[in-house]
User: Which sequence fits this backbone?
């Protein structure tokens, strides 16, 4: 059995497995970026779990997004790996998000005003994930100034925040909760 604790991080540094093994401070830009991507991935997991376990009839239409959200989680993990080692990212990741955004926008009323986070509790969670995606994007930009960041990582996280915005609107639409307009 592998122990979860090594005691090697007690001094504020940790080991990162990149092309070569690195020992970095835990507040290094690379680790800050990893942490934000991990937080975003966790929020996507929260949303996915709530969609899977919700029983109202109108949630049946949203449960189909479960596999899409799981793919997004896999892509976020791949982005984290790509910024430490090799990029295994493709345009297909971004194209899939764009297709889904377009399909979701066909289901909701056109947006004519700014929208505040809220509505249905799941939509509010999606908005939280969206804000974490925006932070992850900022962290990737900061990291790109000192470390190689694959351009598709930035594009994916940028598009993911758009996806999450439209998905929150779709959740509100399907659950018959109005968007909160400014």
Assistant:
């Amino acid at each position: 059995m592998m122990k979860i604790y090594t005691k090697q991080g007690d001094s504020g540094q940790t080991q990162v497995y990149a092309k070569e093994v690195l020992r970095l401070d835990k507040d290094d830009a690379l680790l800050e970026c990893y942490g934000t991507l991990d937080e975003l991935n966790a929020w996507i997991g929260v949303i996915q779990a709530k969609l899977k376990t919700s029983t109202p009839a109108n949630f049946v239409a949203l449960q189909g997004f479960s596999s899409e959200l799981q793919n997004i989680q896999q892509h976020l993990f791949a982005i984290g790996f790509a910024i430490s080692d090799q990029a295994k990212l493709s345009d297909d990741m971004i194209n899939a998000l764009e297709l889904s955004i377009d399909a979701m926008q066909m289901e909701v009323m056109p947006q004519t005003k700014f929208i505040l986070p809220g509505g249905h509790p799941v939509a509010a969670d999606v908005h939280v994930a969206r804000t974490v995606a925006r932070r992850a994007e900022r962290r990737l930009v900061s990291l790109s100034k000192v470390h190689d960041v694959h351009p598709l990582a930035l594009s994916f996280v940028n598009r993911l925040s758009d996806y999450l915005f439209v998905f929150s609107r779709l959740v509100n639409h399907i659950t018959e909760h109005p968007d909160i307009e400014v």
Summary: Helices lie at 29-53, 60-63, 66-82, 91-107, 121-144, 151-174. The beta strands are 13-17, 21-25, 115-116, 180-181. DSSP finds six helices and four strands in the chain. Residues 13-181 form a domain with the Hypothetical Protein Ta1238; Chain: A; fold (CATH 1.20.1200.10).
